[in-house]
Specification:
There is one protein chain. The chain contains 17 helices and 8 strands. By secondary structure, it is mainly α. The protein folds into 2 domains: 210 residues, no CATH class; 178 residues, no CATH class. The strands form 4 sheets. It has a two-stranded antiparallel sheet. The chain has a two-stranded antiparallel sheet with strand order 3-4. The longest helix is centred in the N-terminal third of the chain and has 21 residues. The termini are far apart. Bound molecules: heme C (4 copies). One heme C (HEC) binds next to helix 4.
Length: 409
């Protein structure tokens, strides 16, 4: 087995834990309401193979440190806080240098279709939300500090109120682990009261570290990959069916007992950090539920993973942009010079609107990949600069390109 193959297998195994399907946001114009809809589903495993095995990107880029170092790392180390649109705009802006490097290295231009790009972005999405490995030594300390040892043993050492955590089955990923803790929390809460201890809370990487410690002490092989791929779309339904929406709004829609979970955060969270946050707030949440006679939700199988995938996706998929700002951007950045100010097509570039195809950040990235080199050539020949896009431009340009052309063309 080559080193590269091993790398891919390692990565694919790691992604099993938080495998997510990629989703995108569309704007339903008729009802003037934003809504989430999956119209594109990518498979991160296929994306990982494209990235590494077919060498489309790993020839130059790494993801979370794995891969070549000729170009920026595209994993969480750099872009944890980026949305899909930000990655697409970064790719757009840097494309000419990327192409120059490909020419200099005489590497074949990877041919990517829209479907491939969907898989690649699904992979980059999961890579960015994959959490770093935990620190076993820190985890051992936390097991004492957080009071787990007062009730739980690890391999026979520790308290006997709850089960020996080294013997547990099926809680080998941070998400499963949090789900199990969540479901058993009422029993834990009862016992913390009688032992007069406060509710243990987790910050940053603590949940990961603790799990790393427990796993290091479990016998037998643990298989991360058994976790089914999570789906933000199913998560959105769970958010409604488990009554989260009764207390939490997403971008203003829903209840206001708890904080709006769709609001742009200063520091978007990884899936495990989200899990930690839910855990920390859970006693307050239950009290609020009891007061309103809302049943306390429990989660089975894939549900918690789906829910967290949905919550994490809120900061990955941007809200729909503005058609009118998009039109201004299209002109100001110089796209209109070639494509016409209404994107109706002009001498130097084809028509982009009213072609009966919906445009998304991913189809825009695909167009860049397929047509970009020619577009770049044309730009250079005309002595014009490469038109760059700001982080927020992508959503607006997409909204503009999806608007029908006047006159019904
Ligand atoms: C031949 C080398 C090469 C290949 C192959 C390549 N890239 Fe790049 N890429 C680069 C370089 C170099 C840059 C940085 C350019 C700059 O700094 O202006 C870059 C920049 C980027 C950026 C912007 C990153 C940032 O931090 O701003 C993204 C996103 C990106 N590439 C995605 C991809 C994807 C996806 C693939 C595979 C389909 C790919 N690249 C293949 C060389 C490459
Ligand atoms: C005050 C006692 C107490 C404390 C403190 C406590 N637990 Fe528990 N825990 C329990 C009990 C009792 C159960 C079993 C509940 C049940 O079966 O419904 C349990 C169940 C669990 C489970 C689920 C086991 C399963 O069968 O799926 C996990 C995981 C867990 N605890 C982890 C922890 C961690 C991590 C800590 C430290 C942050 C901790 N617990 C602190 C009492 C406690
Ligand atoms: C009965 C009302 C209620 C329900 C139902 C409820 N929550 Fe909460 N939630 C709250 C309150 C109140 C807080 C703030 C608690 C605190 O500050 O400790 C909160 C906090 C949170 C937080 C932390 C937010 C932050 O930024 O600090 C998350 C995440 C969360 N809830 C997710 C959920 C999910 C997912 C569900 C559905 C499974 C849910 N909540 C159901 C009331 C509720
Ligand atoms: C210098 C002229 C020029 C500029 C400036 C320019 N383009 Fe293009 N664009 C072209 C040409 C020429 C093609 C067709 C390339 C081909 O046939 O492969 C094209 C193709 C495209 C396509 C793919 C169309 C398809 O058939 O799928 C998209 C999308 C696009 N451009 C968007 C943009 C955006 C957005 C901007 C501004 C940020 C921009 N272009 C700026 C000349 C230009």
């Amino acid at each position: 087995m080559t080193a590269k193959r091993q790398m891919v297998i390692w990565l694919v195994a790691a992604f099993g834990a938080t495998t997510l399907l990629t989703a995108a946001l569309i704007f339903e114009r008729r009802s003037e309401q934003t809504r989430w809809s999956i119209f594109m589903v990518g498979d991160p495993h296929v994306g990982a193979r494209l990235f590494f095995e077919k060498d489309a990107c790993a020839h130059c880029h790494s993801v979370n440190g794995v891969g070549a170092k000729l170009a920026p790392d595209l994993g969480f180390s750099r872009s944890q806080h980026d949305s899909l649109n930000q990655i697409v705009s970064a790719m757009w802006n840097h494309a000419p240098r990327m192409w120059e490097q490909m020419r200099a290295e005489k590497i074949a231009y990877p041919d990517l279709r829209s479907e491939d790009m969907t898989h690649l972005f699904a992979f980059l999405y999961t890579a960015r939300y994959l959490d770093e490995r935990g620190d076993e030594v820190a985890g051992e300390r936390l097991f004492q500090q957080k009071g787990c040892a007062r009730c739980h043993a690890i391999r026979g050492e520790g308290g006997g109120v709850g089960p020996d955590l080294a013997t547990l089955e099926g809680v080998d990923t941070p998400i499963r682990w949090t789900q199990a803790m969540w479901n058993h929390a009422p029993a834990m809460e009862k016992n913390t009261e009688s032992l007069q201890m406060s509710w243990p809370v987790f910050e940053g990487h603590e949940m990961n570290d603790l799990l790393a410690y427990v796993r290091a002490n479990c016998g037998g092989q643990r298989r991360e990959t058994e976790l089914l791929p999570a789906s933000p779309d199913r998560g959105r339904k769970i958010f409604q069916s488990k009554s989260c929406i009764a207390c939490h709004a997403i971008e203003g829609k829903g209840g206001h007992v708890g904080p709006d979970l769709g609001a742009k955060r200063q520091t978007p969270l990884t899936i495990v950090q989200f899990a930690g946050l839910m855990w920390n707030h859970s006693p307050a949440m239950w009290r609020a539920s009891e007061a309103r006679s809302i049943p306390r939700p429990t989660f089975q199988g894939q549900e918690f993973a789906d829910l967290l995938a949905f919550l994490a996706s809120l900061s990955y998929f941007d809200l729909p942009g503005s058609e009118s700002i998009g039109q201004t951007v299209f002109q100001d950045r110089g796209c209109g010079y070639c494509h016409g100010n209404g994107a109706e097509g002009a001498q130097e570039g084809p028509k982009l609107r009213g072609r009966g195809r919906s445009v998304t950040a991913i189809t825009l990235a695909t167009s860049l990949w397929q047509h970009g080199p020619k577009m770049y050539q044309r730009t250079s020949a005309l002595g014009r600069p490469w038109p760059t896009l700001n982080e927020t431009d992508v959503g607006d340009v997409v909204a503009f390109l999806n608007a029908p052309l006047e006159g019904g063309h």
